[in-house]
Specification:
Keywords: Cytoplasm, GTP-binding, Hydrolase, Lipid-binding, Membrane, Mitochondrion, Mitochondrion outer membrane, Nucleotide-binding. InterPro entries: Dynamin, Dynamin_GTPase, Dynamin_GTPase_CS, Dynamin_N, Dynamin_stalk, G_DYNAMIN_dom, GED, GED_dom. This is dynamin GTPase. It comes from Rotaria sordida. By secondary structure, the protein is of the alpha/beta class. The protein has two domains: 276 residues, P-loop containing nucleotide triphosphate hydrolases (Rossmann fold, 3-Layer(aba) Sandwich), CATH 3.40.50.300; 248 residues, Four Helix Bundle (Hemerythrin (Met), subunit A) (Up-down Bundle), CATH 1.20.120.1240. 58% of the residues lie in helices and 8% in strands. The protein is built from 27 helices and ten strands. The strands form two sheets. Strands 3-4-2-5-1-6-7-8 form an eight-stranded mixed beta sheet, sandwiched between helices.
Length: 717
Amino acid sequence: MEALIPILNKLQDVFNTVGSESIQLPQIVVVGSQSAGKSSVLENLVGRDFLPRGAGIVTRRPLTLQLVYTPPEDKVVQCQSLGMSVPDENEFAIFTHIKNKIYTDFNEIRHEIEAETDRLGGKKNISHEPITLKIYSPKVVTLTLVDLPGLTKVPVEDQPADIETQVRNLIMHYISNPNAIILAITPANVDFSTSEAVKFAKEVDPEGRRTLAVLTKLDLMDRGTDAYDVLCGRIIPVKLGIIGVVNRSQEDIHKKKPIEEALRYESALLQKNYPSIASRNGTPFLAKTLNRLLMHHIRDCLPALKTRINQMVSHFQTLVNSFGEPIEDKVGRLLLQIITKFASSYCATIEGTAKNIEVSELCGGARICYIFHETFARALESINPLDTLTTFDILTAIRNATGPRPALFVPEVSFELLVKRQIKRLEDPGLRCVELVHEELQRIIQHCGAQQEFIRFPRLHEKIVDVVTHLLRRRLPETNRMVENLVGIELAYINTKHPDFYEAGLIHKALTGGDYVTTTTTNQNQPQHSHNKSQRDISRGKENRSSEESTLGKITSYSRALVQQHLTDGNDDESIVNGDQPSRSMSNTTNSSPTTTAISMVPIGDGTTINARQLSPREQRDCEVIEKLIRCYFLIVRKNIQDSVPKAIMHFLVNYVKDQLQSELVASLYKTATHEHDELLDESGQIAQRRKDAQEMLEALHKGNQIISEVRETHLW
C-alpha cells in the first residue's frame, strides 16, 4: 500500500509536464483562513522550516508538496532515478521548474518559493499556476498535499480589490475535484461553527465523505475552556474526523525553536489537557492519518482513473491522426492527394453524396435545387402578364400600329409589340437565378471536405480558393449570356402557331367575342338578334375557312365582321372609325352592361393631351382581345423560361465546374515549380504546435497507463 503514493507522484509528474487539468488525480488540499496555522501544520509534517512567512497573503500560488519517505540507504537509488548527484545530507528537495538542481538548504527553498511566486503573480496578485516541490527525507511520511492561499475578506495595502473572489475561485477549483481530500484548517480559539474552511468544504462535500478537519492552536484557548466537544465531533460532525494539533508561536518561530522540541511540547500538552483522546491527536497522528486516507483514496480512485486515461488516449490519438505526420519531404504526391480529395468532396457536395451531410441548413446541390424550383419559380410566378400594362398603353399601341389610317381592325403589330415588352421582364429573374447558384458554388468551398488540410496548410487553402473563384467567375458571363439568349430567342419570333397557344380554346373565344356579343344584344328585338346571329355565323364560317391563316389574321377577320354588323345597324363608318358615340342600340346596350364602365384615356386635339371617358364597346372589345392573347402567350413563354434557365445554368456553370475542377487545380497548383510546392505545403505554426502538444499528452497518457498497470501487477489495486 505504501507504494501507491509514489505511484501517484509519478502520475503527477507525468501530467504536470503537459499541464493537463483534465486528469483529476487524488490529492490532499489544504484550506484555511489567513493565519489559521496552515504553514505551521505543513512544516510540522515535514519537520523543517521552509515556507515563506509575513503579513497579508504570503501564499499566492498553489504549492504542490510531495513528501517522499527516503531512508539513508535508499538515498543513492533515489538520486540515480532522478539523474542527479547524491548529496551529503539525508534531507534534500527539488523543484520541477528547475532542472538538475538539488536543494539541501531549506532557507534557499523558501527564497525560491518567494521568487517563483513573484515571477508569475507579481507582488500581490493570485496565480493558478502551481509550484511543485518534492522533499525527500527519512523524517516524513509519504504524502502529497496542495497548499492554497489563505481565505481573506478585506484587501490590504495594494492588494487587488477582488482578492477575496480570486482566492475563493482558486480554492473552489481545487476542492471541486471529486478525487481530492479536503484538509480544513481551523484555529481552536475561534468558534468552530463559524469556520470558513469547513463552510467551503461543505459546499462541495455536503456529506463530508472526503473532509478531514484540523483544529490548530489548542494551547491558545481561553483559560477554563477546552476543545473536547469539537474534537469528539459533538459540535459539527466530520466523517473523516477532527484532529487537534499545537503550533509554534510567533515567538518560537522568531527564536527558531526546533520543530522536534515543538512536537514534544505538543505531546505533553495533549497528555495533560486531553489525556483520554491524546493518542488520536497531534502532528504524528495527523501524518499517519493523512497517509492512510490518501492510500485508500488512491486505491479507490485508480479504476475510474484508468478508464478516464483510456478515454483520453483514444481522443488524443484521433487528434494526432487528424493533424497528420510532419512534412519531412514536401513532394507533389501529398499535394495531389489533397487536390483530389478536395475536388471529389466538392463534387460530392453538389451531388448529395458527401459523407458529412449538413443537417442545420441546405447546402450544395440541395440549395441549388431549392433555388431552381422555389426561389426562381416564385419569382417568375410573381410576374403578372399584364403588370405595367395599362388600357391607354394598349389603345396607344393599336393606334400607333395603324399609322395615319383610322383603325378598322386590331393590328398584329400591336400584339407583338406589347407581348415582347412583357416577355422582356423574364430576363431579370433568370439572371438573378444565375447569381444565386454562383454564390452557392462559391460557398461550397467552405463546406466540403479537406477542412483539416485547409487549417494545416493555410497557403494551399488560399490558392485553392483563388483557383475555384477564378473558374466560377470565368463561367459567369458565359452563363449570363445564355440566359439572355433564351429570352432573346423568345423575343425573336412570336410563334402564334404554337400548339398551346393555338389550341387553348382561348383564341377562338376571344375572336368570336361570344360573351361580349351576347351581352350587347340582350335588349334587341328578335329580328335584330337573328341578324346578329347570322353575322356571327358568317364570322365563324370565315374562321373555319381560314384555319390555316395566322391567329392575328383572324382578329382582322373578326374586326371586319363587326364593322359590317355596325353598318347593317345603320351606323356610319365615321362613328365606328373615330370611336364616337355608337348607334342607339349600342348605346342602350352600353347603359345596361356593366362591362362598359371602365375608363379609357384617349387623345384629343393635337394628341398630346388626354381626357377620361367611358370605353366604347369597340375599344373594350379590342383591349380584351389583346389582353387575353398577351396573357395566354406570356404564360407559354414563362413556362419555357422556367424550364430552360435551370438547364442552361446546370450545363454552362454547375456541370462545367464539376467536370473541369480537378484539371484546373492540377494545372494551376500541381504543375508548378518544386519551390512553390514547398510554399503551398508550409504548415501553420498553430497546427505544428497543437500536434506537438497532442503528441506529448499522448505519451504522458501512455506512461500513466503503464504506471497504473504496474500497480495491478503488484496486487496493490
